[in-house]
Amino acid sequence: MIAKDISTSVKKKDHDGKISGQLAYISDVKVDSMLYGVLYRSPIAYGKVRSIRLPPLPEGYEKIGAEHIPGNNFVKLLHNDQPIFANEWVNYIGEPMFMLVGPKLDILYQLVDEVEVDFEEHPAIFTLEEAIKQKDQTGVFAYHEFGESLDVIKSIEKKAHRVIEEVYETGYQEHVYLEPQGMLGIYKADEILVKGSMQCLYYVKNALISALACEDDEVRVIQSPTGGGFGGKEDFPSMMACHVAIAAKVVKKPVMLLFDRAEDMEVTTKRHPAKFTYRTAIDEQGNILSMNVEVFLDGGANAGLSPVVLQRALLNSSGVYKIPHFHAKGYALKTNTVPNGAFRGFGAPQSFAAIESHLGHISSMLKRDPIQYKRNYLVKQGDPTITNGRFRDPILLEDMIQDLLQTADYTKKKEAFRAFNQQNKRFKKGIGASLFLHGCGFTGSGERDHIKAVVKLEKTEQDQVLIKVSNSDMGQGALTTLSKIVAKGLDLPYEDILFPDPDTKDVPDSGPTVASRTTMIVGKLLERAASQLKAGWQSGVAQEVVEHYIHEDMIPWDEETFSGDAYPAYSWGVNLIEVEVDILTGSVRIERVYGSFDIGRAIDERIVKGQIDGGMAQGIAYGFMEKMTSQLGKIQQKTISDYGPPTAMDLVPIESKLYDNPYAGGPYGAKGAGELPLTGGAPAVQAAIEDALQIPFYQIPVTPELIIESLTKKDGDARD
Amino acid sequence: MGTVLSYRLASLEETIAQLSREDCQIMAGGTDLMVQHKSPMGAPARFDKPVMFIDHLKELKQIDQVNQDLHIGACCTYTEILEHPLIPNIFKVAIKQIAAPAIRNRGTLGGNICNASPAGDTLPLLYIFNAQIRLRSSKGERVVGIQDFILGPRRVDRLREEILTEIILPEMLADRIVFEKVANRRADAIAKISFAGSMRLEGGRVGEARFAFGAVGPTIVRSLDIEQKLKGEAFPLDPKVVDGVVAYFDRIITPIDDHRSTAAYRKTVALRLLRHFLETM
């Protein structure tokens, strides 16, 4: 079909395969003479390997370890501190040390059970708290400090009416993609082919070139249908790809590495736990005079993407507010725990939870409505960012808030809830809001300096158009939205645009599928490519067009001084959530959820609605349900039911609204939409619980355990 | 690959006869057993005994009223119980909170009892109903109270050759009966704590009160002593009486910390639910 309006929803390109269950994910693939791999993982958190004793291996079974790596024994990403096979030092429980490969999984499990490793154990750092105490000695993956000078802040604080300091903590979050991680390495005489579930084909390819010490054309990466990523398949798959590629090269057979749910939950990357200190000076009228922020992220055992996650956390530490005299510094620290990595929002959900909580608490100290108080500080078009960039485009936040307060009948509802709470002994109702943004695309000059995205459109002699990009559809609908963008430019039905599974042999590096950049950045390049193809269209002739990333004219980003435009564009959101809290049990029932978003223009309304519903569910659950803990370096929740992501029973239909605010730099006006909807969930649900109970909380998730502890304490205080 | 010897016999009689000859792992719906016996991905489940399937046996799927008692076949699934008109409503309240429809279509009442999890969702109600368990073997049959049948986590008083055939639910007269399950989410979740309570009033006084707590100890916690002491107390209860009952359970409830919750939370919530029940009508 050719829709007039690109936002009109269409059937997703992968709909039939997924709905019928016919689409083959990597774990459905079986190839001739395929072997399986099972990893031997470190049972200790920190130590030196003294010796390894293997059981006798039956014929057809082999150990694959560091000794088989032709190139570098690290997973190429930012730092070189993540071994492919940890053969000298181990840094966390679950770190892969070597892999046994062979034809039968049950035999492999038994063999791995019989391995004996002797370690010289060293004292490990298990918590962020310990890491903060020891940060001067060791283990700072990244550090940034920027903003107003501390002397100025100090002198403001000295003269202030009041200085409010709060510590705020956020926990782990697990991605719980439906499809656990899986990777297949295939040996061929002239190349190693790796197929699997992934978001970033070229990250994987570059890691393979480094590990195999080979030429560009000796490795090939194909993305298989990917059942959810959420960032969990951004950095992590590169390590598994190295494992299967090295093994396949040694045994000259296909090698499959699949994680079941328990293994996936225990050893794959999580959202960084974080600790914040906010210190805010106010005058007698409650006006904010200055704000000083300190952020610590628990990076886990290796740097991974932590330095970049820290940047986004810092860049969002002032929320959507223009704060006079703002200063921030942050650290990403090493602990001997499972490495933390990319996760939808990438540091921003932690910061928004913290700033929204902090301003909420200040407003209740001042006996002001939190939304009204925060509205005094909203950034406006033309305002500087905290890094002296500029909000260049129109900002609709004020209208979005106004609309939502009316739609939800906020003032009346608050009164009704207060009356209900006075009369009901068991249940207390509350309403809370969050205001947030998401910087679209890579942070800073990443797109220009590192990614340099290239896209290609191919037209066959039969006039069939194929999209050649390295971006994954992981359920978010990229196959469909990118096809729609190209189709619109060519005046063709979107069904006619072909989008084969990305294969590095065939597609240029259009960058990773991350950072809410795919629709906005890659989509824009495809929009340009389509119009170029259309202009030169010759029926019956094979044609090819290529487009390269062009950096928008912005205030140049300087990572050293942490200044300039960190993002070309921003998406915006307002959430309002109503809850009912059972004060006997601390259980929270979500009663209504509103979400208003400005994502420029929707390329497909239903796909965007899917991102909103899923993202908000994930964000709300981050705020009060999903609880993951690590004890002495071991993740405690190994099943989905123990971890407790929400089911349909835990949520209500989400009442969402989009605001049209086309962005010239995005295809047909689109901005990023993937991460934004997650960001506001946690702070809104925390605010709603606080409103219901009239108790402040200083951490998420606000679990029933925390609620009961706080209520008990409040009861005790009242009695004293 | 290991193979698993299994039986799926045509009748209860043949099943009982086979159980007298061979020690088997009896499997009804399998919703707990398959989880307990699963291997890592790609390897078969491990059983050290032959598996005896009983989920298909019609003799174990009846629900009948005999005099004032309700007889529920051990292999009635949660869904079958949920849909049956004779089942007391409060059981339906509890069963609706078990797992999700797919599990409820497989899981059975007999299985929930024999699995004997401290967090078993049907157990607190079965305790306060004074449910009886009927067991049969080639040697005969016996009936035992649920509180005597369940010995500890995953331990029940069932002999090798015995099979649990039915659950007998005596009629319970109550003016108020509640069931509360507290878990980390509203479906597919294991209870952090559960509570069942019932109360019958006679002329402004307590005729009978019963309470049971799940997931706060190795087995369901119920005290006939304290229930006896409440008999005849004027209702609404004097605050001192309420405090006394709460203080009593404060002493006998001994929950643990685990990956699902904390001991402190479990105890506090158990006592809060109890107090609320005693103070409300």
TrEMBL record, chain A:
This is CO/xanthine dehydrogenase Mo-binding subunit. The lineage of its organism: Bacteria, Bacillati, Bacillota, Bacilli, Bacillales. Keywords: Molybdenum, Oxidoreductase. Residues 20-123 form the Aldehyde oxidase/xanthine dehydrogenase a/b hammerhead domain. SMART domains: Ald_Xan_dh_C (SM01008).
